[in-house]
Amino acid sequence: MKSKIAARDPRRLRRGLLCLSVGLLLSGAALSVFAQDAAAPSPNATVNLIRLMVKRGLITQADADGLLAQANTEAAQARSAVSAAPPSDGAQPGDVRVAYVPESVRNEIRDQVKQEVVAQAKTEHWATPNAIPEWLDRISWYGDVHVRDESWFYSRNNSPYFIDYGAFNRNGPFDINSITQGANPPILNSQQDRLNMLRLQAHLGVAVKLGDTVTAGVRIGSGSDDNPVSTTQTLGGGLTKKDLWLDQAWIRWQPTDWGSLTAGRMAQPFVVSDLIYSTELNFDGVAGHFDLPFTDSLNSFATVGAFPIEYTSSDSPSEAFGYDKNVSNEKWMTAAQIGATWKIDNDTQFKSALAYYYFDHMRGELSSPCALYTGINYCSTDDTAPQFMQKGNTVFLIRDIIPDPSSPSNYAQPQFVGLSYNYHVADFYNQLDFKLGETSVRLQADYARNMAYHESDALNRYPGGLGQPINNYQSGATATTQGPYKSGPVAWLVRGIVGTPHPMAANEWNIALGYKYVQPDSMLDGLTDANFDLGGTNNKGFIFTADYGIAPRTWLSARYYDAKQVYGPPLAIDVLQIELSTKF
User: Fold this and answer.
1) What is the largest CA-CA distance in the chain?
2) CA 352, 561, 450 angle in degrees (round to 5)?
3) Read out DSSP for 481-508?
4) Whole-angstrom Cα distance, residue 75 to residue 84?
5) Could you report the per-residue pLDDT of 171-210, keeping only the tens digit for each?
C-alpha cells in the first residue's frame, strides 16, 4: 500500500525530504538514539519530528527507518572524509569544520531583520500593548479654551449721539421719520462703562488625513451670535446653555510639497496682522497656496483665493404681489498675495508680503423711486445693504422713498443703509525676528490703503441731495450741529514684541507694544478686530499686551487697548482683558 505522503505532489515531497535531510545531517550522531528505544522521548528534536510524522500518518515506519538509515550512512561518510582530510590549519582528526561568518555580516543581518520586524509591528500594531487601530492614527484633535475678565471704559467727554447704523440693517428697516416723532434710532453706548464681564471662547476641531494628498477638517466654536469676527460668549444670562457654531469645515488637496488647494470654510490663508482682519475671522471659499524656495535661506510664497461675501436671495423680493425677482447681486472678494522669507542667520529672519484684496459689489446702490405707501415692503436695491457692519465706514440711506400722497409731510420712511465706497485694499506687511542675547524680538509693520477710495464718490454720486453720507463728519457733538465731511483711505500698524511670541511652555513670556491708525474707509469695518475700539474703523491708539506661560500649553494674558476716533465727534474707548488660555 502506498503511503499518504507518496500520494502528494512529488516536488513537494522532494523539498520536504531535502529539508529533513539537512536537519538530520546537522544532528549527526544523535540520530542513532532513535533505534535504541522507539518509545522513549529523544533529546534530539529531529528524531521526535520523524516520530510525530509516523504517528500522524504522514510517512510509514518503513519510510522513517529508511530515511534515518540513509542519513546515518551519509553522516558517517562525512565524518570519515573529515578525518581523512590532511589538516592544513592545525585541525585535529575528528574536528568538525564550521563556516565562519564575520561579526559585521552578522550585525548587518540582525539589524536588517530588526528593522523589517519593527516596521511591520508599527504598521500592524501587533507589538504595542493596547495599540489602537491604524485608521485612528490618521485623525488628530485640537482645540483651545479662553476664560476672560473684560472691562470697557468710556470717556466722559464722548458724544452721546452715535447712531448704530449696523442695526438699521440687522433689525431694520428703521423708520427715520419716527425720529421727528420723538423716537430714538438705535444708539451706540458711548458713555457708560461695562466692568468685569466674564467671557469665554472655546474651539474644538478634528483633522482627518484621507490619503497621502487629501486632508479634511471640521471645527466648532463658541459665540453669542453669528458675527464673522468673534467667537466670544459672555457668561451669565441666567446660567443658560451657550451656543455652538460651525466655525470651520474644509478639504485640502496637496498633490506636491510646494502647493495646496483648500476649499470650504477655512482659517484665513494670508500673512496678515490684526490691522485689516480680525484674528478670529474665517473665510468661505477656495484658496491656493504655493511655496517656491530659491535657496536654503530664501523662500518665496504666493496665495490666491476667491471668497463669497453675500448672495442675493433666490426669492428676492418675497412679497406675494411681487412677480418679478431681482437679478443676482453677488458680492465676492478675490485676493492675491506674494511674499518672501529670508533667513539671514540662525537667529534672524525677515518676512515681507504684498497683498491685494478686491471686494466686488460692496458699494450700496440708490433704489429706483419706491412707493412703500402702496403696501409693498421692498425697494429695488435692498440687497446692496451689507449684512454685517461694526462702525466707521461711510454709509448712506439707499431707499428713494416716494412721499405718501395722502400725507406728504408725514409718512413712513423705513430705511436701510449702504456703503458709500468700494473697497480694493492693498496691504504691505513686514516682520523681522531676531535675538538680543537669548531673548527673542519681533518687529511688525503693516500698511494698507483702499485703492478705490475717492471722496467725491460719497458727495457727488447722486444728484438732488440723494445718497449723501450720513456719518463721519468732522464735528457734531450735539444733535443739531454738523461740520464738514471727513474720511480717508489709509491704515497702518507698528508693533514690537519682546520674548516668545506665542508661549507654549511654563515660564515662557512676552511683552508687546503697538500703535494702530485706521482711517474710516481704509477697509471694511465689518471684518476688523472686535477688541480694539470694540470693532470697526475710524480709530487710532496704543495696544499693550503681555503673556506668561504657567504650565505646558497654558498661559495668562493681559491686554489693554487705548483707542479714540480719528475724525468726527469725540469717542474714546479703552478695553482691559485678563485672560487664562489653554491650547491642546
Assistant:
1) 137
2) 45
3) ----B----EEEEEEEEEE-SS--STT-
4) 14
5) 889 999 887 667 788 999 999 999 999 999 999 999 999 9
Angle, vertex CA 373, rays to CA 369 and CA 376, nearest 5: 80
Amino acid letter, residue 402: I
Looking at the chain, how many residues does it have?
A: 584
Q: Which residues contact 45 (CB under 8 A, 6 or more apart)?
A: 27
* d(C-alpha 406, C-alpha 350), whole Å: 69
Tell me, yes or no, if the pTM score tops 0.70. yes
Cell of 193: 462703562
Say whether 32 sits in a helix, a strand or coil: helix
DSSP string, 334-362: EEEEEEEEEEEETTEEEEEEEEEEEEES-
- What one-character DSSP code corresponds to residue 365? -
pLDDT tens per residue, range 116-136: 777 776 666 655 666 667 777
* Of residues 148, 260, 250, 256, the one with CA closest to residue 198: 148
Q: Is 464 helix (H, G, I), strand (E, B) or coil?
A: coil
Long-range Cβ contact pairs of 468-471 (< 8 A, separation 24 or more): 468/396, 469/394, 469/395, 469/396, 469/420, 470/165, 470/395, 470/396, 470/397, 470/417, 471/163, 471/165, 471/394, 471/395, 471/568
Measuring CA to CA, how many Å separate 510 from each of 379, 443, 501? 53, 13, 6
